[in-house]
Amino acid sequence: MPGIHPNFYQSAPELPREKGGTFLTDPILPAYLRYRIPSGVLESIWKDLERFGERCVNECQGLADQAEANPPRHVPFDPWGRRIDHIEVSEAWNKLHRISAEEGLIAIGYERAHGEYSRLYQFSKIYLFHPSSAFYTCPLAMTDGAARVIELCGTPKMKERAFRHLTSRDPKQFWTSGQWMTERTGGSDVSSTSTIARPSGPGYLLFGDKWFTSATTSEMALALGKVEGATDKREGLSLFYLELRDQDGRLNKIRINRLKDKLGTKALPTAELTLEGVPATMLGEVGEGVKRIASMLNITRVYNSVTALGTMARVLWLAKDYAKKRQAFGKYLVDQPLHVETLADLETEFEATFVFGFHLLHLLGKDETGKASADESKVLRLLTPVLKLWSAKQCISIVSEVIECIGGAGYIEDTGFPRFVRDSQVFPIWEGTTNVLSLDVLRAMERENALVSYLQDLESRLASVKSPDLQAEVARVREAGKALK
Ligand code: MFK
Fold this sequence. Notes:
Helix content: 40-55%
Shape: globular
Number of helices: 15
Largest sheet: 5 strands, mixed, barrel
Strand order of the largest sheet: 4-5-9-7-6
Mean pLDDT: 96
Bound molecules: decanoyl-CoA
Low-confidence stretches: none
């Protein structure tokens, strides 16, 4: 019968399998790196990014799908009733751990072989890895944050042992770290921490409950606790280093109460724990807990943004690929002006946030290698929470628009699109809500006078725009800058 096509089956959107995989086909990453990184440095990393872009498509994606299909399981007891609190994870999840080490996903940031460009290189790989990693990037975020805290204020022993493991490229040596902060009273107001640190010999024993601990399969964690009997204004809230297992591989005075049944990030084990006297060592001084963990948060917030960017790039790729394969009203979607306009708007929003994010990655690399000016360090401090709150919200909005671009199929579980909706919903919550981050922006303005540095930077950028066509926009941004003062 005319008009009816019983043999029609829609082709699915696919990832790019050609040379360079998701790296060379990315709409902005290769061009941005060419613009930002000197040619000698670029040459030394380019082939690795091409190879990794292919590996993400050809190997990591399959592992991520397997890890999602086989979520972690809490096994509280052995067959004979002994408490073991084992978290069973899939072999695919373990393989993603090994790949993270082999690829130097943490190591690159600390070897600093590429000087101020090391973070740009490292995070280019994190950006490519994230959408094919089943959120293995969450343990990596905390691992990187912990490495930074130990680098800044760890004891010589922590630097010799934990730091070496956290930044190792050897899968057998590579450790990940947890960040044990959130309690039942909340993730935002950490001053209400009720975990107690009881002095014991040269260290402490931690007692209390932690309500959200992701990557509970990690080898170590940084945890907040209050020193028993402390009377300073923060009631002794301090940061502690601990190792989860004893020499026989058993959990060391830690009880896993249950795994969280989360909206998304299903492959990632996130647990509720009770600490029953865990041996721990303090980082920094008594009462410095928030200040010390802030160095970790500033790194994990950058991960939040880069992984949100990676998600946006992935869903937009799929939407663009689909537009070349899907016909409606006798034409491919890519030939329908309204649809193309929608995709172009989304792409523009994404690319603007990408440039914002990667600019901050460069500043982070400069800051950590002593190349940043005092003003640049302040801009980094001020804009890190701004980037995080913006990219998180934007990711949700872009994912939602992309689902609409795909239509009904985007609403169907086994096309894979609903997973993006569930997973992206974590971005505004993970590592600080929008309002908490807004307060952090005010903190940076008030305590570090960072707005002055930002406005100077803004003005010098505006002054460099010479095109007459853009002068009206320049004037608008200048006015908006004045309103901030
Ligand atoms: C991937 C999937 C994951 C699975 C699902 C996860 C679901 C989510 C689970 C969660 O719970 S995520 C929640 C994560 N929580 C946070 O991100 C913490 C949010 N709260 C904040 O960030 C608060 O603003 C903060 C705890 C920091 C406020 O604490 P205070 O005690 O009111 O801070 P205060 O007194 O303003 O600052 C203490 C010190 O830290 C100051 O330094 P000084 O002691 O020298 O004066 C501050 O300058 C410093 N500081 C605070 N924030 C900083 C900072 N320094 C640098 N950078 C920052 N961002």
